[in-house]
Amino acid sequence: MSAMSTSPKPEAMVIDQPEAEEQPPQSGAEQDEQEEEEEEEEEVAPRRSTRVRKPVIKAPAPKLDLGSDSDLSDAPVRRRRRRKSTAAKQAAATTAGENGEEVVSEPPPKRKRKRAAEPDQEPKEEGAEEEKGNEDEKPPPKKRAARKKKVDNEEEDSTAKVGNGEENAENGPAAPAPPKRKRAPKKPKEEGEQEDTKMTSPPKETVTEAAPNGDAEEPEKPKRVRKPKVKEPVVYVIPDVEKKTTTFRGRLGYACLNTVLRAQKPAVFSGRTCRIDTIQKSGMDHVKELGRQNVKDLLTMIEWNEKNNIRFMRMSSDMFPFASHATYGYDLSYCDAELKAVGELAKKYGHRLTSHPGQFTQIASPKENVVEASIKELEYHAEMMDRMGLDQDAVMIIHMGGVYGDKATTLARFKDNYEKKLSDAVKRRLVLENDEICYNVDDLLKVCPQLNIPIIFDYHHDSINPSRRPASELIPIINQTWQARGIKPKQHLSQAREGAVTAMELRAHADRCTELPRDLPDDMDLMIEAKDKEQAVFELYRIYDLHPVIWENLRPPSEDQGLKTKGRKSAGGKKMRKDQKDGIPVPETEEQTIDPEMIDELADDDDI
Predict the structure, then answer these.
(1) Given pLDDT bands bounded at 50, 70 and 90, which one contains residue 101?
(2) Is the per-residue pLDDT at 547 higher than 90?
(3) What count of other Cβ atoms lies within 10 Å of the Cβ of residue 314?
(4) Environment class of residue 470 by beta-carbon count within 10 Å: exposed (0-12), middle (13-18) or buried (19+)?
(5) Where is this region: Disordered (predicted)?
(6) Residue 496 bridge partners (DSSP)
(7) Is 166 helix (H, G, I), strand (E, B) or coil?
(8) What does the buried/exposed string (b/e) look like for 60-88 if buried means 16 or more CB atoms within 10 Å of the residue's CB?
(9) Is the separation of the CB atoms in 249 and 522 below 8 Å?
(10) Strands (E), 282-373
(11) Residues whose CB falls within 8 Å of the CB of residue 360, separated by 6 or more in sequence, listed in order
(12) What pLDDT is recorded for position 582?
């Protein structure tokens, strides 16, 4: 027996493993090729990197003469030794397996990846040299730049480069790799030193204060300042008017609202109001502040009227919202200074201010609660005018109200309530107006001379609910009621819309008036009750050349004002039917009757 057979066999560790298919042993050349392929896959495999490296410029690799082992570098020598040791271990494992013992061979140690000696050309393996012989050498494919190696791999590469020094000398010295740039360490900031930034000084919006708990609040982003849009002035096309003549030289006025000022931003008007729900949520201070703002805007309206030659105006009945309410009512002492300013300005310019309480003000109502609410409303208006310091020409206009089944009884009830329940402040300013439904001038003359109450003659109402006598005979009698009290007479003018037929349509006021009444006295204050407000006054100014107008304040009339109105006065439009002869739609014009007892529930256009 040989010495090799007498040596004791090492005890092998037996482990239960699943049987694997036996593979034939590979030759050294096949193993070399497989390892080279694995190295190429590892080197060519893409690697994720977040750092951008500058390309390293290297000198071309010298050709290696692989004829003798002495010319090879140490790296190929070590590689061949490892292969021999691996082959010996595999042979020992194969011999142990032939004797029937299961042997678990330890996996070969992982080789550390090495940077290729030259990027363009890789030294060929020994087995490949013997097979190819003296065939022409072909350059290997280019590979990607290897990842940064550890220090020990760099030392091996430097050893390989020293072994090839003679060949490198023939092709010229290799260019040294450029040194890597290193970042300079940041200098520590000194106290009070600020970082250099592009902005010379931080904006005021970015300055933040430390929170009480020590955490700094995030700076607010500066808001973008938008350039204001330049709106071109609106050019209105004002149509010409048909010129007429008159001997009238009195004052024309409008009611409550100025359309030019109302369309401005911010709007100017004196009719701000709210609901009871708003009062419950916001409190009484909110509703009182609305009244204060209404009074302030009234000052602006008076100034505007003076510039436009309008010296007669009706104040809104909603000047102080809910001032006469049974639960949320309040006195006007908190706004005394503003009210005095209005009265002083009106006296300065010689303007006449009046008021028209709402349609629910019914002194002759058979319901006691309605009478009490009406008295509170009149007291509120009287207090407002008294605090303004207005004279006797500042009157309050109301209607007699409903018939309630018996006109004579209603007139007697009105007389009784007027004498017993109204205060002197209310009686001093109260006047009555003929209406278009229940009470014409003939009816009012039965009560007003006895109670010394002036009568306002409304031309439009008299045309719908006329008296027995014409206006030319009634006006002198009416003027006597004014003269008895020393108050300047006033009248109301309006007209129905074009095409109005039914009672409801006739009651609705047109946007403008086309002419003055024929029987109008020369010196009379005439209130124009039209939807276009101050524009209706300007229209009559231009037609009769009463006063010059400012052209910029003129607005064109509506092309089609229609017959529908807001509220219950509207007939809901015309019902159409088709004529059986020619199929042309024809409007139905059935006359609509109005119950006189419902007059207290109908809306009145005088304060709109």
Answers:
(1) low
(2) yes
(3) 22
(4) exposed
(5) 1-228, 554-608
(6) 509
(7) helix
(8) ebbebebeeeeebbeebeebbeebeeeee
(9) yes
(10) 312-315, 352-355
(11) 370, 373, 374, 377, 600
(12) 40
Q: Residue 570: exposed, middle, or buried by beta-carbon count in 10 A (0-12, 13-18, 19+)? A: middle
3-class secondary-structure state, position 105: coil
- The residues with which 313 forms a beta bridge, in sequence order, are 254, 353
Point out the least confidently predicted range of 180-184, 374-378, 494-498: 180-184
pLDDT digits (tens, 9 = 90+) for 457-505: 999 999 999 999 999 999 999 999 999 999 999 999 999 988 888 888 8
At residue 217 the predicted structure's pLDDT band, cuts being 50, 70 and 90, is low
DSSP 204: G
φ/ψ of residue 71, rounded to 5: -80, -10
- Which residues are CB-contacts of 575 (< 8 A; sequence separation ≥ 6)? 587, 588
Point out the least confidently predicted range of 13-17, 243-247, 442-446, 488-492.
13-17
CA separation for the pair 76, 55 (Å, rounded): 28
Res 259: pLDDT: 96
The owner of tokens 């409903």 is 402
Identify whether the C-beta of residue 543 lies closer than 8 Å to the C-beta of residue 497: no
All structural domains of the chain, each given as residue ranges with its CATH number in brackets, are: 251-553 (3.20.20.150)
Residues with Cβ within 8 Å of 256's Cβ and at least 6 positions away in sequence, in order, are: 270, 271, 314, 315, 316, 317, 533, 607, 608
- DSSP structure string for 44-104: HS----SSPPPPPP-PPPPPP-TTSGGGS-HHHHHHHHHHHHHHHHHHHHHHHHHTT----
E strands, 111-153, are none
Q: What is the model's pLDDT at position 454?
A: 98
First-residue to last-residue Cα distance in the chain: 135
For residue 142, give Cα distances in angstroms to 119, 145, 191, 574: 7, 9, 55, 94
Instruction: Write the CB contacts of 445 (distance below 8 Å, at least 6 apart in sequence).
Output: 455, 477
Question: Between helices 407-421 and 368-388, what is the axis angle to 10°?
Answer: 50
Place of tokens 């390892």: 35
User: pLDDT tens for residues 295-304?
Assistant: 999 999 999 9
Backbone angles phi, psi at 312, to 5 degrees: -150, 125
Question: Where does the pLDDT of residue 193 fall: very low under 50, low under 70, confident under 90, or very high at 90 and above?
Answer: very low
Determine the average pLDDT of the residues in 505-525.
Answer: 93
Say yes or no to pLDDT of 518 above 50. Answer: yes
